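Work package 3, deliverable 3.1, input record:
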Amino acid sequence: MAAIEKALLLSKQFGALISDPVEFRGETTLRVLEAERISEVCAYAKETLGFNMLLDMCSLDHLGEDPRWTVVYELYHMAERTHLRLKTDVTSEKGELPTVSSVWRTADWLEREVFDMMGIRFRGHPDLRRILMWDGYPYHPLRKDFPLAGKPTELPEVAFTKPAPLEGGPFVTVAGGKDTLAREPRVRVPES
Amino acid sequence: MATTHEFEAKDTVARAAVVSRAAAQDQDQLQGETMVLNMGPSHPSTHGVLRILLELDGEIITKAVPDLGYLHRGDEKIAENMTYTQFIPYTDRLDYLAPLANNVAYSLAVEKLMGIDGALPPRCQYIRVICCELARISAHLLGLGAFAMDVGALTVFLHTFTEREKVYNLAESLTGARFTTSYTRIGGLSRDLPSGWVAACRRFCDEVVVNFDESEKLLTRNKIFLDRTRDVGVISAAMAIDYGLTGPNLRGSGVDYDVRRARPYLVYPELEFDVAVGSVGDSHDRYLVRMEEMRQSVRIIRQCLDRLPGGADNATREPINIPDGKTVLPSKDKVLTSMEELIHQFILVTQGVNAPPGEVYFGAENPKGELGFYIHSKGGGTPNRLKIRGPSFVNLSILPALLPGHMMSDVVAILGSIDFVMGEADR
């Protein structure tokens, strides 16, 4: 069964909660309009529709927009070889959504990574700790307002308390027109 | 604790059930005080910088907490700040044992976003497949050698490293670099095959199969190796899928999932190869799967060399890049003589390729599993967000569930059989 048919089944079950499917480059994307019900939708997708594998989870930061964050789930149906993407928006005031680690256990570490890098919390997660950065690190590095060069931290005697010497270096290139430049300037001086 | 492989169960599935029951029983019977042992981040069998906190009762592990991030470099943040082409060298450093395969996977992801992955010239596709399979052989040879060394068979390590040297020589003559290859470009390759390379690659294929036979003679029926790996680290098929395992670790558990078959890319549908699957899902099965995969890789490489459009020296001048001046850098002589090509060169170098807004996920079958790239684009030459699904990261997430109940000495066998690389786990 094609991904689009699965998507329609999901829409049929949840009605207005699911947006119309978007197709791009042969992939089907569905938006779940209430982040609070994502675990319910995922559980249905796994148990009834057979999406038995969670390939990946990702978070997007739309700084300056509301809602600020999007969490992306890549679902995979192993027997029928179907891929489906679910997306749901999270506002910066709430910054929280239910965990799907009880649906697929691989979501345990993937959610920890999203929490570590973007600062979105997952309610009901069994062990929501940082995974790549160290415990006690104060920032979430993949947020768009975190500078590429790093930030000085308040913690004494911790490595990387000074920004990395990337300023103006050949490692940072900004492509495109003015919009891109505004989005991620070549060098952003912390706290300016 | 019962010796786990001397059960009466004859068939493999029954054996797996008995083993897991025995492990659960052992855990229930634990009574003594536990102690916490730190393993890593610099430990010979953690293959890089993985740290595991092990809680032990005597010699039995009761709890395992992996600690990652010692090799975190912020690749995803870096990707948001440069053009798609500039990120190619960073992909070398993901799974640094198979840089060629990472280059190909990343380029294909960007090409999928741009909608040009179907337009790649056949010669380019064949060369990319050869690169992927050479990388697979190289990575598996290291994984195998290190695995065998960890469980006490040093000879195999020396054998496999001799062969890996030849892969590096091939990579050097192909790309100019042994490790950091950066071979692909968006829409093609950085250069065509050098003269004499095809013959050298054929020679390598003939030599490496001899090495496979030798390594297999040393290991497959070796009593010590069997004792260390059989029924150790059994992962059931359901558990493997639940934890998102991919690659040889998933197939070792008997799940027939290979991205080259499930969602074919490049010219894989035209090539004949078998997907090796295990039955019990123990460390020995994962070893056998890798062994067979290397043989299949040689088979794929031979087919590609035979069918390579244009032949060894590209006598018919087959293109290796897509014919689009706005995606692939024009040749230098044209840049110096023609206005249009000069403009294209300038735009491509300063602003990058013009990708459309949208989002794609592309997964490729890499030596360690499915290397996935999720690209979210707002248009233009840089990604808005690039998420890397490192297969090692996901494969390692099974450790807290897999290690408890095993002996301390089994940890090295299990880690060796899972065959991870921290470059792509920590990114």
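Chain A has two domains: 3-123, 147-192.
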